[in-house]
């Protein structure tokens, strides 16, 4: 399904796929508001995502993630960076579709994702290489449900933004 005249762009993709950096640059370019779902959760709870996972576990995190998404989905126009697991929850996908959002999958090669995930702290679901590949494999079928796939391998956020601007969704 391809939407035109998008009012909301949702960026989906695995941890380290550049959702936040691309989202910020895209929002600047189109002069829309930028919203990072993880940041909304952290400021709403007053703790880091890592702390939420550690103290209350993933099911609780998914509950507050869904509640935060429901609030965000009312805001437009906006560029919204999802968390790596947001798109994998069927309720979330439904909510995004119902709100009329256009979804873009930032598809980044596994080696690049791994390199970035290993470098940056604060990702509770990143443990080791084997579990990284397992989780990625589980999630790929869900990311493929996005309206558009943007191949981002070896590209800077600005290059990815230019690709997005060339899509027939504006
Ligand atoms: C998660 C990815 C994280 C964050 C949380 C769970 C996931 O977001 O939402 O740690 O399930 O992949 P990023 O993709 O921005 O790292």
Walk me through this protein's architecture.
This protein is of the alpha/beta class and 170 residues long. Helices cover 51% and strands 14% of the residues. The chain has helices spanning 19-30, 37-45, 49-56, 58-72, 90-98, 110-119, 129-143, 157-165, and strands spanning 8-12, 33-36, 78-81, 102-107, 148-151. It has a five-stranded parallel beta sheet. Helix 2 packs across helix 4. The protein is globular, with a radius of gyration of 15 Å. It binds shikimate-3-phosphate.
- Neighbour order of strands in the largest sheet: 2-3-1-4-5
Number of strands: 5
Low-pLDDT regions? none
Distance between the termini: 15 Å
Morphology:
globular
Percent of residues in helical segments?
A: 40-55%
Order of helical and strand elements: EHEHHHEHEHHEH
Mean pLDDT: 94
Structural class designation: alpha/beta
Main β-sheet: number of strands, strand sense, barrel status?
A: 5 strands, parallel
Strand share of the residues? 5-15%
| Bound small-molecule species | shikimate-3-phosphate
- Rounded Rg: 15 Å
Number of helices, counting only DSSP H or I runs of 4 residues or more: 8
Describe the structure in brief.
By secondary structure, this protein is α/β, with parallel strands linked by helices. The chain contains 8 helices and 5 strands; from the N terminus they run βαβαααβαβααβα.
């Amino acid at each position: 399904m391809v939407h035109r005249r998008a009012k909301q762009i949702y960026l989906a993709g695995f941890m380290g796929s550049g959702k936040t950096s691309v989202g910020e640059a895209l929002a600047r370019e189109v002069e829309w508001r930028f919203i990072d779902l993880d940041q909304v959760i952290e400021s709403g709870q007053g703790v880091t995502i890592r702390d939420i996972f550690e103290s209350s576990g993933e099911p609780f995190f998914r509950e507050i993630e869904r509640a935060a998404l429901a609030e965000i989905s009312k805001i437009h126009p906006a560029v919204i960076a999802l968390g790596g697991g947001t798109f994998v929850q069927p309720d979330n996908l439904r909510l995004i579709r119902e709100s009329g959002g256009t979804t873009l999958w930032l598809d980044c090669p596994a080696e690049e994702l791994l390199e970035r995930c290993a470098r940056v702290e604060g990702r509770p679901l990143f443990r080791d290489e084997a579990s990284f590949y397992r989780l990625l494999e589980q999630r790929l079928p869900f990311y493929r449900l996005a309206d558009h796939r943007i191949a981002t391998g070896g590209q800077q956020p600005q290059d990815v933004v230019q690709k997005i601007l060339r899509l027939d969704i504006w």
